[in-house]
Amino acid sequence: MVLTPFRKSRGASTRSKLKVSFEFFPPKTEEMEKNLWESIDRLAPLGPSFVSVTYGAGGSTRERTHNTVAKIVKETRLKPAAHLTCVAATRDEIDGVIRDYWSAGVRHIVALRGDPQTGAGTRYEPHPGGYAYTPDLIAGIKAIGDFDISVSAYPEKHPDSASVDDDIDVLKRKVDAGATRAITQFFFENDFYFRYLDKVQAAGINIPILPGIIPVMNFRQAASFAARCGTHVPQWLADRFEGLDDDPATRKLISAAVAAEQVTDLIDRGVTDLHFYTMNKADLVYAICHLVGIKGEQPAKAVAA
Question: Looking at the annotation, which residues are catalytic?
């Protein structure tokens, strides 16, 4: 697939081709477990192309991710994509995780370098016995099984990169290693995304680049997270949430409206694949999808006697 079809159609013809995917994170507590599966049940009728499950360094996080994706395979019709990073593990340990995913029926991995264990803003240091960077990890995954592999992309550049062009060079190495699609870091200004697509296409990269959308549940938290990720927070977005710190009900309505505006603009400019960072909160994401015409299976109505 090439990038140009993402931008050539508008209106109803584009909407009829829309595809969505969702990111979840594995639960840490019994209450979070309940919330996760309620979220999955809520969004499953929208027929996502896949659902991804995040992953962090450390044995307990790896185990929670594995258990979650294995349960999705076993108990739903959804296609899970398991996140996997290079951080804090040897090649043998990571290879074991990959084989466990294959044995569990997982055929899609989101391959990532991962954040430094020392925290955001600190220097990343590869594990001396591990996969150093994402292209190395992708090659290791492909050596074990014929996985579908998604990777990250950064319309406003990764915080560790000198420029967007440097990031695109990294993306090309990921594609050369076997990546089949990229999912962007979230952004709020769609022009960043489309300028990035132009640069990616000019570099000869022809995999789909899915825009990552995050509904703003809490503006202060979102702004703080965006600063760590290198995502620009426009003043108009701050203005939308001004004065609503103690008004969660109105914030939720504004969140849906803002995200729906962003997604509508992406669709009108030809985007057909959308990836939502759900934060395990299904109702808001479901409402946004409904607002832009992504409607799933409806339960059958009871017939009156």
Answer: 23
